[in-house]
Design brief:
Blueprint lengths: L3 H13 L23 H16 L20 E6 L5 H17 L2 E6 L4 H13 L4 E5 L7 H9 L4 E4 L6 E2 L7 E3 L3 H15 L5 E6 L4 H16 L4 E7 L5 H16 L5 E4 L3 H12 L8 E4 L5 H9 L3 E5 L3 H16 L13 E2 L20 H9 L2
Parallel strand pairs: 1-2, 1-3, 3-4, 4-6, 7-8, 7-9, 9-10, 10-11
Antiparallel strand pairs: 5-6, 11-12
Length: about 375
Protein backbone atom coordinates (compact mmCIF):
# COMPACT_ATOMS: atom_id res chain seq x y z
CA UNK A 1 0.00 0.00 0.00
CA UNK A 2 1.30 3.47 -0.88
CA UNK A 3 1.88 6.06 1.81
CA UNK A 4 -0.67 8.82 2.18
CA UNK A 5 1.87 11.48 1.11
CA UNK A 6 2.86 9.53 -2.00
CA UNK A 7 -0.78 9.09 -2.96
CA UNK A 8 -1.44 12.80 -2.43
CA UNK A 9 1.47 13.85 -4.62
CA UNK A 10 0.53 11.43 -7.35
CA UNK A 11 -3.10 12.49 -7.39
CA UNK A 12 -2.27 16.20 -7.41
CA UNK A 13 -0.02 15.73 -10.44
CA UNK A 14 -2.71 13.71 -12.20
CA UNK A 15 -5.45 16.16 -11.27
CA UNK A 16 -3.43 19.05 -12.61
CA UNK A 17 -3.73 17.47 -16.04
CA UNK A 18 -7.47 16.97 -15.68
CA UNK A 19 -8.85 20.24 -14.34
CA UNK A 20 -11.64 21.33 -16.65
CA UNK A 21 -10.91 24.78 -18.05
CA UNK A 22 -13.40 27.12 -19.65
CA UNK A 23 -14.62 25.73 -22.96
CA UNK A 24 -11.59 25.07 -25.17
CA UNK A 25 -8.96 26.80 -23.03
CA UNK A 26 -5.75 25.26 -21.74
CA UNK A 27 -5.77 23.76 -18.25
CA UNK A 28 -3.64 25.61 -15.70
CA UNK A 29 -0.50 24.01 -14.30
CA UNK A 30 -0.65 22.57 -10.80
CA UNK A 31 1.39 24.11 -8.00
CA UNK A 32 4.01 21.99 -6.29
CA UNK A 33 2.15 19.35 -4.24
CA UNK A 34 4.87 19.48 -1.61
CA UNK A 35 3.55 22.92 -0.63
CA UNK A 36 0.13 21.51 0.29
CA UNK A 37 -0.97 22.27 3.84
CA UNK A 38 -4.38 20.61 3.89
CA UNK A 39 -5.06 17.37 5.72
CA UNK A 40 -3.51 14.59 3.64
CA UNK A 41 -6.50 12.24 3.73
CA UNK A 42 -8.93 15.03 2.84
CA UNK A 43 -6.68 16.44 0.11
CA UNK A 44 -6.52 13.15 -1.78
CA UNK A 45 -10.23 12.97 -2.47
CA UNK A 46 -10.73 16.74 -2.49
CA UNK A 47 -8.30 17.24 -5.37
CA UNK A 48 -10.01 14.56 -7.42
CA UNK A 49 -13.45 15.85 -6.44
CA UNK A 50 -12.55 19.32 -7.75
CA UNK A 51 -11.40 17.86 -11.06
CA UNK A 52 -14.54 15.74 -11.39
CA UNK A 53 -16.80 18.67 -10.42
CA UNK A 54 -15.25 20.93 -13.05
CA UNK A 55 -15.60 18.24 -15.70
CA UNK A 56 -19.31 18.05 -14.80
CA UNK A 57 -20.13 21.74 -15.30
CA UNK A 58 -22.53 22.86 -18.07
CA UNK A 59 -20.82 24.03 -21.28
CA UNK A 60 -22.55 27.32 -22.03
CA UNK A 61 -19.68 29.59 -23.11
CA UNK A 62 -17.90 29.54 -26.47
CA UNK A 63 -14.16 30.10 -26.65
CA UNK A 64 -13.41 28.42 -29.96
CA UNK A 65 -12.60 30.18 -33.24
CA UNK A 66 -14.63 33.26 -34.14
CA UNK A 67 -13.07 34.06 -37.51
CA UNK A 68 -11.94 32.16 -40.57
CA UNK A 69 -12.43 31.80 -44.31
CA UNK A 70 -15.82 31.98 -45.96
CA UNK A 71 -17.21 28.73 -47.29
CA UNK A 72 -15.34 27.25 -50.24
CA UNK A 73 -18.28 26.53 -52.56
CA UNK A 74 -19.37 23.17 -53.92
CA UNK A 75 -16.86 20.84 -52.27
CA UNK A 76 -17.31 17.08 -52.23
CA UNK A 77 -16.03 15.39 -49.07
CA UNK A 78 -15.37 11.70 -48.43
CA UNK A 79 -16.18 10.50 -44.90
CA UNK A 80 -14.16 7.38 -44.04
CA UNK A 81 -15.67 5.79 -40.93
CA UNK A 82 -14.05 3.07 -38.81
CA UNK A 83 -17.35 1.43 -37.85
CA UNK A 84 -20.78 3.05 -37.95
CA UNK A 85 -22.01 0.57 -35.34
CA UNK A 86 -19.95 2.59 -32.86
CA UNK A 87 -22.13 5.36 -31.41
CA UNK A 88 -19.28 7.87 -31.34
CA UNK A 89 -18.36 7.29 -34.97
CA UNK A 90 -22.02 7.49 -36.01
CA UNK A 91 -22.60 10.68 -34.02
CA UNK A 92 -19.64 12.44 -35.61
CA UNK A 93 -20.65 11.30 -39.09
CA UNK A 94 -24.12 12.76 -38.53
CA UNK A 95 -22.57 16.02 -37.33
CA UNK A 96 -20.38 16.20 -40.43
CA UNK A 97 -23.37 15.71 -42.70
CA UNK A 98 -25.37 18.36 -40.82
CA UNK A 99 -22.51 20.85 -41.10
CA UNK A 100 -21.86 19.95 -44.74
CA UNK A 101 -25.48 20.72 -45.53
CA UNK A 102 -25.11 24.08 -43.79
CA UNK A 103 -21.94 25.01 -45.68
CA UNK A 104 -23.29 23.73 -49.02
CA UNK A 105 -21.12 20.64 -49.57
CA UNK A 106 -21.75 17.11 -50.80
CA UNK A 107 -20.62 14.09 -48.79
CA UNK A 108 -20.09 10.38 -49.40
CA UNK A 109 -19.78 7.96 -46.46
CA UNK A 110 -17.56 4.86 -46.50
CA UNK A 111 -17.85 2.36 -43.62
CA UNK A 112 -14.85 0.13 -42.83
CA UNK A 113 -16.95 -1.96 -40.41
CA UNK A 114 -14.04 -2.35 -38.01
CA UNK A 115 -11.81 -4.64 -40.10
CA UNK A 116 -8.40 -4.20 -41.72
CA UNK A 117 -9.79 -5.25 -45.09
CA UNK A 118 -12.69 -2.86 -44.66
CA UNK A 119 -10.34 0.05 -43.90
CA UNK A 120 -8.26 -0.55 -47.00
CA UNK A 121 -11.38 -0.90 -49.14
CA UNK A 122 -12.98 2.26 -47.71
CA UNK A 123 -9.82 4.34 -48.18
CA UNK A 124 -9.36 3.09 -51.74
CA UNK A 125 -12.99 3.85 -52.61
CA UNK A 126 -12.72 7.33 -51.11
CA UNK A 127 -9.56 8.04 -53.11
CA UNK A 128 -11.27 6.83 -56.29
CA UNK A 129 -14.01 9.41 -55.69
CA UNK A 130 -11.37 12.13 -56.19
CA UNK A 131 -12.91 14.26 -53.44
CA UNK A 132 -11.95 17.81 -52.60
CA UNK A 133 -11.23 16.68 -49.04
CA UNK A 134 -11.56 13.65 -46.80
CA UNK A 135 -12.47 13.19 -43.15
CA UNK A 136 -11.43 10.12 -41.15
CA UNK A 137 -13.75 9.14 -38.31
CA UNK A 138 -12.18 6.79 -35.77
CA UNK A 139 -9.59 5.38 -38.20
CA UNK A 140 -6.07 5.06 -36.75
CA UNK A 141 -4.00 7.45 -38.88
CA UNK A 142 -0.71 5.91 -37.75
CA UNK A 143 -1.58 2.37 -38.78
CA UNK A 144 -3.20 3.58 -42.01
CA UNK A 145 -0.45 6.03 -42.99
CA UNK A 146 0.70 4.10 -46.11
CA UNK A 147 -2.90 4.05 -47.38
CA UNK A 148 -3.33 7.77 -46.67
CA UNK A 149 -0.16 9.04 -48.34
CA UNK A 150 -1.80 9.05 -51.81
CA UNK A 151 -4.22 11.71 -50.53
CA UNK A 152 -1.27 13.92 -49.64
CA UNK A 153 0.35 13.22 -53.02
CA UNK A 154 -2.83 14.41 -54.74
CA UNK A 155 -3.07 17.41 -52.37
CA UNK A 156 -6.41 16.23 -50.97
CA UNK A 157 -6.64 17.66 -47.44
CA UNK A 158 -7.26 15.19 -44.62
CA UNK A 159 -8.58 15.81 -41.13
CA UNK A 160 -9.81 13.26 -38.62
CA UNK A 161 -11.65 12.48 -35.42
CA UNK A 162 -9.97 10.19 -32.86
CA UNK A 163 -7.27 9.27 -35.38
CA UNK A 164 -4.34 9.35 -32.94
CA UNK A 165 -3.38 9.52 -29.27
CA UNK A 166 -2.95 13.31 -29.19
CA UNK A 167 -5.59 15.95 -29.94
CA UNK A 168 -4.95 18.98 -32.15
CA UNK A 169 -2.75 19.68 -35.16
CA UNK A 170 -0.77 16.64 -36.29
CA UNK A 171 2.89 16.69 -37.32
CA UNK A 172 4.56 14.23 -39.71
CA UNK A 173 1.24 12.87 -40.87
CA UNK A 174 -0.89 13.19 -44.00
CA UNK A 175 -3.70 14.10 -41.57
CA UNK A 176 -3.59 17.79 -40.63
CA UNK A 177 -5.81 17.76 -37.55
CA UNK A 178 -7.08 15.29 -34.96
CA UNK A 179 -10.36 16.63 -33.60
CA UNK A 180 -10.93 15.27 -30.10
CA UNK A 181 -10.97 16.11 -26.47
CA UNK A 182 -7.65 15.31 -24.80
CA UNK A 183 -7.91 11.51 -24.56
CA UNK A 184 -5.60 11.33 -21.55
CA UNK A 185 -7.74 13.82 -19.64
CA UNK A 186 -10.84 11.86 -20.66
CA UNK A 187 -9.34 8.67 -19.26
CA UNK A 188 -8.07 10.25 -16.05
CA UNK A 189 -11.40 11.88 -15.25
CA UNK A 190 -13.14 8.54 -15.84
CA UNK A 191 -10.83 6.77 -13.40
CA UNK A 192 -11.03 9.61 -10.87
CA UNK A 193 -14.82 9.44 -10.97
CA UNK A 194 -14.59 5.76 -10.07
CA UNK A 195 -12.24 6.53 -7.19
CA UNK A 196 -14.56 9.27 -5.91
CA UNK A 197 -17.74 7.21 -6.26
CA UNK A 198 -16.16 4.24 -4.48
CA UNK A 199 -14.68 6.25 -1.64
CA UNK A 200 -11.22 5.26 -2.93
CA UNK A 201 -12.03 1.54 -2.64
CA UNK A 202 -12.71 0.56 -6.24
CA UNK A 203 -12.10 -2.98 -7.48
CA UNK A 204 -11.54 -2.29 -11.16
CA UNK A 205 -11.62 -4.14 -14.46
CA UNK A 206 -10.63 -2.11 -17.54
CA UNK A 207 -11.88 -2.96 -21.04
CA UNK A 208 -9.74 -1.82 -23.96
CA UNK A 209 -8.96 -2.47 -27.62
CA UNK A 210 -5.27 -3.02 -28.36
CA UNK A 211 -5.80 -2.31 -32.06
CA UNK A 212 -5.80 1.46 -31.56
CA UNK A 213 -3.14 3.86 -30.29
CA UNK A 214 -5.76 6.10 -28.71
CA UNK A 215 -7.21 3.14 -26.78
CA UNK A 216 -3.77 2.19 -25.48
CA UNK A 217 -3.12 5.76 -24.36
CA UNK A 218 -6.49 5.96 -22.58
CA UNK A 219 -5.90 2.65 -20.84
CA UNK A 220 -2.47 3.67 -19.57
CA UNK A 221 -3.91 6.92 -18.21
CA UNK A 222 -6.73 5.11 -16.38
CA UNK A 223 -4.29 2.60 -14.91
CA UNK A 224 -2.08 5.47 -13.74
CA UNK A 225 -4.92 6.82 -11.60
CA UNK A 226 -6.10 3.47 -10.25
CA UNK A 227 -2.58 2.39 -9.31
CA UNK A 228 -2.05 5.69 -7.49
CA UNK A 229 -5.06 4.92 -5.27
CA UNK A 230 -3.64 2.89 -2.42
CA UNK A 231 -6.91 1.21 -1.38
CA UNK A 232 -8.14 0.56 -4.93
CA UNK A 233 -7.48 -2.77 -6.64
CA UNK A 234 -6.80 -3.30 -10.32
CA UNK A 235 -8.32 -6.72 -10.91
CA UNK A 236 -7.81 -7.11 -14.65
CA UNK A 237 -7.33 -5.42 -18.00
CA UNK A 238 -9.28 -7.19 -20.75
CA UNK A 239 -8.42 -6.65 -24.39
CA UNK A 240 -11.63 -7.00 -26.40
CA UNK A 241 -11.74 -5.61 -29.92
CA UNK A 242 -14.59 -3.12 -30.26
CA UNK A 243 -15.60 -4.83 -33.49
CA UNK A 244 -15.96 -8.13 -31.57
CA UNK A 245 -17.60 -6.72 -28.45
CA UNK A 246 -21.10 -7.95 -29.30
CA UNK A 247 -19.86 -11.54 -29.56
CA UNK A 248 -17.36 -11.54 -26.69
CA UNK A 249 -18.61 -9.24 -23.92
CA UNK A 250 -21.47 -11.41 -22.58
CA UNK A 251 -19.13 -14.36 -21.96
CA UNK A 252 -16.30 -12.13 -20.70
CA UNK A 253 -18.69 -10.48 -18.23
CA UNK A 254 -19.91 -13.84 -16.93
CA UNK A 255 -16.31 -15.01 -16.56
CA UNK A 256 -15.27 -11.91 -14.60
CA UNK A 257 -18.28 -12.16 -12.28
CA UNK A 258 -17.43 -15.78 -11.56
CA UNK A 259 -13.77 -14.97 -10.95
CA UNK A 260 -14.04 -11.81 -8.85
CA UNK A 261 -17.60 -11.77 -7.48
CA UNK A 262 -18.37 -8.75 -5.30
CA UNK A 263 -14.69 -7.69 -5.36
CA UNK A 264 -15.42 -6.35 -8.83
CA UNK A 265 -17.42 -3.18 -8.23
CA UNK A 266 -16.21 -0.86 -11.03
CA UNK A 267 -15.78 -1.41 -14.75
CA UNK A 268 -13.94 1.18 -16.81
CA UNK A 269 -13.88 1.10 -20.60
CA UNK A 270 -12.36 3.08 -23.43
CA UNK A 271 -15.79 3.19 -25.11
CA UNK A 272 -19.45 2.87 -24.11
CA UNK A 273 -20.06 0.09 -26.61
CA UNK A 274 -18.60 -2.54 -24.26
CA UNK A 275 -21.38 -1.83 -21.79
CA UNK A 276 -24.07 -2.30 -24.44
CA UNK A 277 -23.24 -6.01 -24.31
CA UNK A 278 -22.14 -6.31 -20.68
CA UNK A 279 -25.39 -4.92 -19.25
CA UNK A 280 -27.65 -7.83 -20.30
CA UNK A 281 -25.20 -10.27 -18.70
CA UNK A 282 -25.16 -8.21 -15.50
CA UNK A 283 -28.96 -8.15 -15.44
CA UNK A 284 -29.11 -11.95 -15.85
CA UNK A 285 -26.57 -12.36 -13.04
CA UNK A 286 -29.06 -10.89 -10.56
CA UNK A 287 -27.57 -10.22 -7.14
CA UNK A 288 -24.04 -11.06 -8.30
CA UNK A 289 -24.06 -8.16 -10.77
CA UNK A 290 -25.92 -5.75 -8.51
CA UNK A 291 -23.75 -2.92 -7.22
CA UNK A 292 -21.37 -2.90 -10.18
CA UNK A 293 -20.83 0.60 -11.61
CA UNK A 294 -19.83 1.21 -15.23
CA UNK A 295 -17.88 4.30 -16.32
CA UNK A 296 -16.68 4.96 -19.84
CA UNK A 297 -13.85 7.10 -21.19
CA UNK A 298 -15.88 7.98 -24.29
CA UNK A 299 -17.77 8.71 -26.27
CA UNK A 300 -21.20 9.34 -24.80
CA UNK A 301 -23.49 7.11 -26.86
CA UNK A 302 -27.27 7.40 -26.76
CA UNK A 303 -27.42 3.99 -25.06
CA UNK A 304 -25.01 5.19 -22.37
CA UNK A 305 -27.16 8.25 -21.71
CA UNK A 306 -30.22 6.01 -21.33
CA UNK A 307 -28.41 3.75 -18.87
CA UNK A 308 -27.24 6.72 -16.82
CA UNK A 309 -30.68 8.33 -16.81
CA UNK A 310 -32.36 5.05 -15.81
CA UNK A 311 -29.74 4.16 -13.21
CA UNK A 312 -29.00 0.87 -14.97
CA UNK A 313 -25.41 0.04 -13.97
CA UNK A 314 -23.72 2.90 -15.86
CA UNK A 315 -22.95 5.87 -13.61
CA UNK A 316 -20.86 7.99 -15.96
CA UNK A 317 -19.49 8.59 -19.42
CA UNK A 318 -16.95 11.19 -20.44
CA UNK A 319 -18.86 12.26 -23.49
CA UNK A 320 -17.50 13.80 -26.65
CA UNK A 321 -19.52 16.67 -28.17
CA UNK A 322 -19.98 14.50 -31.24
CA UNK A 323 -22.25 16.73 -33.31
CA UNK A 324 -20.15 19.80 -32.52
CA UNK A 325 -16.99 17.93 -33.48
CA UNK A 326 -18.59 17.08 -36.82
CA UNK A 327 -19.02 20.82 -37.39
CA UNK A 328 -15.44 21.45 -36.32
CA UNK A 329 -14.18 18.85 -38.81
CA UNK A 330 -16.01 20.63 -41.61
CA UNK A 331 -14.58 23.98 -40.48
CA UNK A 332 -11.03 22.59 -40.35
CA UNK A 333 -11.50 21.12 -43.84
CA UNK A 334 -12.79 24.46 -45.13
CA UNK A 335 -9.68 26.20 -43.77
CA UNK A 336 -7.41 23.75 -45.57
CA UNK A 337 -9.37 24.14 -48.82
CA UNK A 338 -8.90 27.90 -48.43
CA UNK A 339 -5.14 27.32 -47.94
CA UNK A 340 -5.25 28.37 -44.31
CA UNK A 341 -3.95 26.43 -41.27
CA UNK A 342 -6.15 24.37 -38.98
CA UNK A 343 -7.18 25.93 -35.68
CA UNK A 344 -5.71 23.29 -33.37
CA UNK A 345 -8.79 23.76 -31.18
CA UNK A 346 -9.32 21.08 -28.50
CA UNK A 347 -12.65 20.88 -26.67
CA UNK A 348 -12.53 20.20 -22.92
CA UNK A 349 -13.52 17.10 -21.00
CA UNK A 350 -17.15 16.69 -19.92
CA UNK A 351 -18.35 14.00 -17.50
CA UNK A 352 -22.03 13.05 -17.79
CA UNK A 353 -23.73 11.61 -14.69
CA UNK A 354 -27.29 11.38 -13.40
CA UNK A 355 -26.71 14.73 -11.67
CA UNK A 356 -26.10 16.75 -14.86
CA UNK A 357 -27.71 14.74 -17.64
CA UNK A 358 -30.50 17.32 -17.99
CA UNK A 359 -27.99 19.90 -19.32
CA UNK A 360 -26.48 20.25 -22.82
CA UNK A 361 -28.68 17.83 -24.73
CA UNK A 362 -28.47 14.99 -22.24
CA UNK A 363 -32.19 14.27 -22.22
CA UNK A 364 -31.95 13.81 -26.00
CA UNK A 365 -29.27 11.15 -25.51
CA UNK A 366 -26.23 13.18 -26.45
CA UNK A 367 -23.76 15.76 -25.19
CA UNK A 368 -24.51 18.79 -27.36
CA UNK A 369 -22.98 21.94 -25.81
CA UNK A 370 -25.42 24.79 -25.42
CA UNK A 371 -22.88 27.36 -26.62
CA UNK A 372 -24.29 28.41 -29.99
CA UNK A 373 -21.65 26.65 -32.08
CA UNK A 374 -23.90 26.19 -35.13
CA UNK A 375 -24.59 29.91 -35.49
CA UNK A 376 -20.93 30.75 -34.85
CA UNK A 377 -19.70 28.46 -37.61
CA UNK A 378 -22.39 29.70 -40.00
CA UNK A 379 -21.20 33.23 -39.28
CA UNK A 380 -17.58 32.28 -40.00
CA UNK A 381 -18.59 30.60 -43.26
CA UNK A 382 -20.93 33.46 -44.19
CA UNK A 383 -23.77 30.96 -44.54
Amino acid sequence: MRSGLGFTAAMLVLCGLCIRPAWGQTAPQTSNPANATLNVAALNLAAMQRAVDRASEPASRWSGPTSGPAAVPGATIAIISEDLRNGGVLGVAKGIKEAANAIGWNTRVYDARGTAAGRSKAVAAALALQPDGAILVGVDAGDMKPDLLPFAARKIPLVGWHVGPLAGAMANSPVAMNVSTNPLDVARITAMAAVIQSGARAGVVVFTDGNFQIAKAKTDAMLEVIRACGDCRLLAVRNVAISNSAEQMPAVTDELLAQYGKSWNYALAINDIYFDYATPALTRAGNMGRGLSLLSAGDGSAAAFLRIQAGTFQTGTVAEPLNFQGWQLVDETNRLLAHQPVTGYVSPVHLVTAANIHFDGGLQGQYDPNNGYRNIYRSIWKR
